[in-house]
Write a structure and sequence with these properties.
alpha/beta; Helix Hairpins; Rossmann fold; 5 domains; 8-stranded mixed β-sheet; 37% helix; globular; KGD_C_sf; ubl conjugation; magnesium; oxoglutarate dehydrogenase (succinyl-transferring) activity
């Protein structure tokens, strides 16, 4: 509208800008209705007496071109052809219809100050030559078509047997016939528009040269997709770096460096193939150019100020990346092939092509020190992506880097996985979210043009494997992997893009896989024609070396000496590797926590209580209105008042208990981050850690960030509707710094199903495989409230099943037993019943001299349950987390008279306690709560069983028999009973086995709950 107003501000009889209507009496009845036309075309048509008169002028053009021409004219009238200059000037003066366009004396007159080459036809004054104008506009359309669709016919496949976009046809818009031009027009000279840089300093070129240059830029070894980006500055920025003549040229020194890097990449794989011929290594053969590509990205990014690079990648090429990008000592890599070597530290270890590492070295291109970390990850495809992003975000946060200039992420992908794995899409959609952005990731796709044995024509529906990146406006550069210089150029552009715009960018290295999926696999079974061609392909190193030798950049002798030099390095490293006596797993840590474990007693647990004045200060802050004209919702005022009332009674509910844990840690300088769907308010509207002004958009107040002047920062952020990527992100965030409390909350615990890969592959087994500790806390709302099978169960049984604790052996009980258990187990699983225990278990996460993941079956109805409150006394100094909460009723006073001893966990305790009173069984039944289920509190369970010697023992749960804690606790109870040497057994009371986690019928739910109570209190 601004452009329209500027163009027509003096043509009031024809345009009413306020309502976009037009005066019918002033328009020809032959005109197409205005709503069918884009605004710039509409303006032009109104200066002709009929459609017929206007069409020759508009033939072949588009609204986008006219807009661009008008914008160029606004900036500099001399930048457009004189005919456009006259038209726009007349329109501004308010020329009547049909009068705005005046043919210049001659089109060959050109723009003042710029000579027009011979060959541009002229026209008689006052007589517009529609053919000339139409042809010029057609040329502009041709240029744009190459910019938009040139990649579709680019020479990207080194094998020359297919098309990267799975389509061998030529788009019609890239054929001259579509523009009514033929071979006779190739030598005609045309003026270049301001939307291209192919001319450099030249403003006029013959059509033949225009097309040749466009084909060289867009249709050879680089295929660029960027015109879909809805930012004119960004598309112009890319155009300039692709189209400017000579911009891809490399210096002699750059070419020699490229050759040396290719030598290392290629000879490393050849060395491993020769020395370890029967071993799987998932080598890089066929895409050896990845190593110089990554090094180019790192060199350029280091020049822009990046100091830390966090890398995530699949198994293919990992050893080569560790050796030749990160420069991990080769002997540490080679010793991984020795199956006789055992680890001299904790952990089961992992296969060599899953391991991560962290290494600092000097970047010789910039003479700056850089840190490179490769995140350990399993084969589960692309699951590492969000972990890398979270780790990168954390590094930026701790550096105070709000623009992402100091740390960046690099993600490597396989083509089939990039298009096939949903976590790629989920992670992409975190890329621009304020609390999750890492300010641009450079993605390198090692495009094998095959997924294991699956042809890409059967593994994706999109033209390219990279099309998912279009949803976030990330430019995509497809490049032929056998052209190292083209690869180097797009890597430089990608690094500069990330530095300039802070957004993702994709480099699609179209290559091939010389061997099968691994070195033992036979690819000829399924891709015979492809692999016949591959067998005939010379390696890219040989092709590039021959090129440089032919052009005189290097000699044959220099090339051979470079190869021999690296071979000697590998041989010496192998000799050193054979001298090693053990594998050190800690040398493969991707985030070493320097100094964290030093001078700490692993068996000592500091107390977690806090002074009452601190309790009151925090509780009053989170119960007070912000003031300063900040208007909060009326319902929220009642919530805050209720908090103050509880504070006055020295009581805390679940929300206050959580706030006390967070606030006290913040005072101690511990950064707290809580993330997940709707966590700011809380799914159950209980938390309200972010208050919103009811009258001002985006005006918020976070009380926990206003407790003390020098406190740490509390970040609470609603996530995208993703579980897989967001939990992976928070896991990565937790890995960077052990002195931070990082929590992820599922909207409902059931939704953790979609992130099971992160639990299975990273959280439960990360320490065993990679010596990778993490203190992440996962809050999974759990409880049977009659809300159906998708809003009841967090699948407690799955987390318990994955614990590493021995069930059939009663451990020796010592003073350090509780800490010994915690030190040895892989993670902690709790089902809590009191705000005080929630408070202590969170503070304990930071008090530990080590880090373990914490899984909490967090409550729903207990968030407001009148009995689920804790006295301030339970938070005070000297208090601590209770692994087991014993019975404190009259039953405990007369344990000899107790007939039934009920063990339970979580919400069902309150149902049991209520029913016990109603049934008047307080003397007969004792109820014990297991707050920490794993590691199992053998010592305390043994004490409780012995306390009630005449009681029958029951395990009571609200979950179905094949779910919940039953299958986990049963063998541990049996081990405990065997230790006591009594013949009792533990009996089950709960719902029957089921396929669904819960009923969806409210009446059935009530009946099932009543059945449990009858079984106990009958």
């Amino acid at each position: 509208m601004i452009r329209l107003r500027a163009l027509t501000k003096n043509i009031k009889p024809f345009v009413t800008l306020s309502n976009r209507s037009y005066t019918a009496s002033r328009l020809s009845t032959n005109l197409v209705p205005w709503r069918r036309l884009s605004l710039p075309q509409n303006i032009i048509r109104r200066h002709y007496s009929s459609v017929a008169a206007a069409e020759p002028f508009l033939n072949g053009t588009s609204s986008t071109y006219v807009e661009e021409m008008f914008e160029a004219w606004q900036e500099d009238p001399k930048s457009v052809h004189k005919s456009w200059d006259v038209f726009f000037r007349n329109a501004e003066r308010g020329a009547l219809p049909g009068q705005a366009y005046t043919s210049p004396q001659s089109l060959s007159a050109g723009v003042p100050g710029i000579p027009v080459p011979s060959g541009i036809p002229s026209v008689q004054a006052g007589v517009p030559d529609a053919k000339i104008i139409a042809d010029h506009l057609a040329v502009q359309a041709i240029i744009r078509s190459y910019q938009v669709r040139g990649h579709n016919i680019a020479d990207l496949d080194p094998l020359e047997i297919g098309a990267a976009d799975l389509d061998t046809s030529v788009p019609p818009e890239l054929q001259m016939a579509a523009y009514h031009l033929d071979d006779h027009d190739l030598d005609r000279v045309f003026m270049l528009p301001p939307t291209t840089y192919i001319g450099g300093n030249e403003r006029y070129l013959p059509l033949r040269q225009i097309i040749d240059r466009l084909q060289a830029i867009y249709c050879e070894h680089i295929g660029a997709e960027y015109m879909f980006i809805n930012n004119l500055q960004q598309t112009d920025w890319i155009r300039k770096r692709l189209e400017t003549p000579g911009i891809t040229a490399m210096t002699k020194e750059e070419k020699r460096t490229m050759l040396a890097r290719l030598v290392r990449s290629t000879r490393f794989e050849e060395f491993l193939a020769k020395k370890f011929s029967s071993e799987k290594r998932f080598g890089l053969e066929g895409c050896e150019v990845l190593i110089p590509a990554m090094k180019t990205v790192i060199d350029c990014s280091s020049a822009f100020g990046v100091e830390s690079f966090i890398i995530g990648m699949p198994h293919r090429g990992r050893l080569n990346v560790l050796a030749n990008v990160c420069r991990k000592p080769l002997e540490q890599i080679f010793c991984q092939f020795d199956s006789k070597l055992e680890a001299d530290d904790e952990g089961s270890g992992d296969v060599k092509y899953h391991l991560g590492m962290s290494h600092e070295r000097l970047n010789h291109a910039t003479n700056k020190n850089i840190k490179l970390a490769v995140v350990a990850n399993p084969s589960h495809l692309e699951a590492v992506n969000p972990v890398v992003q979270g780790k990168c975000k954390a590094e930026q946060y701790y550096k105070g880097d709000i623009e992402g200039k100091s740390a960046m992420s690099i993600l490597l992908h396989g083509d089939a996985a990039f298009s096939g794995q949903g976590v790629v899409y989920e992670t992409m959609h975190l890329s621009d979210l304020p609390s999750y952005t890492s300010h641009g990731t450079i993605h390198l796709v090692v495009n094998n043009q095959i997924g294991f044995t699956t042809d890409p024509r059967f593994s994706r529906s999109s033209p390219y494997c990279t099309d998912v990146a279009r949803v976030v406006n990330a430019p995509i550069f497809h490049v032929n992997g056998d052209d190292p210089e083209a690869v180097a150029h797009v890597c430089k552009v990608a690094a500069e893009w990330r530095a300039e715009w802070g957004k993702d960018v994709i480099i699609d290295l179209v290559s091939y896989r010389r061997n099968g999926h691994n070195e033992i696999d036979e690819p000829m079974f399924t891709q015979p024609l492809m692999y016949k061609k591959i067998r005939q392909m010379p390696v890219v190193l040989k092709k590039y070396a021959d090129k440089l030798i032919a052009e005189g950049t290097v000699t044959q002798q220099e090339y051979e000496e470079e190869c021999a030099k690296y071979d000697r390095i590998c041989e010496e490293a192998l000799l050193n590797a054979k001298k090693l006596t053990a594998i050190h797993n800690k040398e493969w840590l991707d985030s070493p926590w320097h100094g964290f474990f030093e001078e700490k007693d692993p068996m000592h647990l500091p107390k977690t209580g806090i002074p009452e004045d601190m309790i009151r200060h925090i509780a009053e802050k989170i119960g007070s209105e912000p003031g300063d004209g900040f208007t909060i919702h009326g319902g929220l005022k009642r919530t805050l008042k209720a908090r103050l009332d509880m504070t006055n009674k020295r009581e805390a509910d679940w929300a206050i208990g959580e706030a006390l844990a967070f606030g006290s840690l913040l005072k101690d300088g511990i950064h707290v981050r809580l993330s997940g769907q709707d966590v700011e308010r809380g799914t159950f509207s209980h938390r309200h850690h972010v208050l919103h002004d009811q009258n001002v958009d985006m005006k918020i107040h976070v009380p926990l960030n206003h407790l003390w002047p020098e406190q740490a920062e509390y970040i609470v952020c609603n996530s995208s509707l993703s579980e897989f990527a967001v939990l992976g992100f928070e896991l990565g965030y937790s890995m960077s710094n052990p002195n931070a409390l990082v929590l992820w909350e599922a909207q409902f615990g059931d939704f953790a199903n979609t992130t099971q890969c992160i639990f299975d592959q990273f959280i439960s087994s990360g320490q065993a495989k990679w010596v990778r500790q993490s203190g992440i806390v996962c809050l999974l709302p759990h409880g049977y409230e009659g809300m159906g099978p998708e809003h009841s169960s967090a699948r407690l049984e799955r987390f318990l099943q994955m614990t590493s604790e021995e069930a059939d052996h009663f451990p020796p009980i010592t003073n350090s037993f509780p800490m010994q258990q915690l030190h040895e187990i892989n993670w902690i699983v709790c089902n809590l019943t009191t705000p005080a225990n929630y408070f202590h278990v969170l503070r304990r996460q930071i008090a530990f001299p080590f880090r373990k993941p914490l899984i909490i079956m967090s409550p729903k109805s207990l968030l407001r349950h009148p009995e689920a409150k804790s006295s301030f006394d339970e938070f005070l100094e000297g208090s601590e987390f209770k692994r087991v909460i014993t019975d404190e009723t009259v039953a405990a006073e007369n344990p000899e008279k107790v007939k039934k001893l009920l063990f339970c966990s979580g919400k069902i305790y309150y149902d049991l306690a209520k029913e016990r009173i109603a049934a008047k069984k307080a003397n007969d039944i004792a109820i014990i709560r297991l707050e920490q289920i794993a590691p199992f509190p053998f010592d305390l369970v043994k004490e409780e069983i012995q306390r009630y010697p005449k009681a029958d023992i029951f395990w009571v749960q609200e979950e179905h028999k094949n779910m919940g804690a039953w299958t986990y606790i049963k063998p541990r109870f049996l081990s405990t009973l065997a230790k006591i040497d009594i013949s009792k057994r533990v009996k089950y009371i709960g719902r029957h086995a089921s396929a669904a986690t819960a009923t969806g019928n409210k009446y059935t739910h009530i009946q099932e709950s009543a059945m449990i109570m009858r079984a106990i209190f009958k």
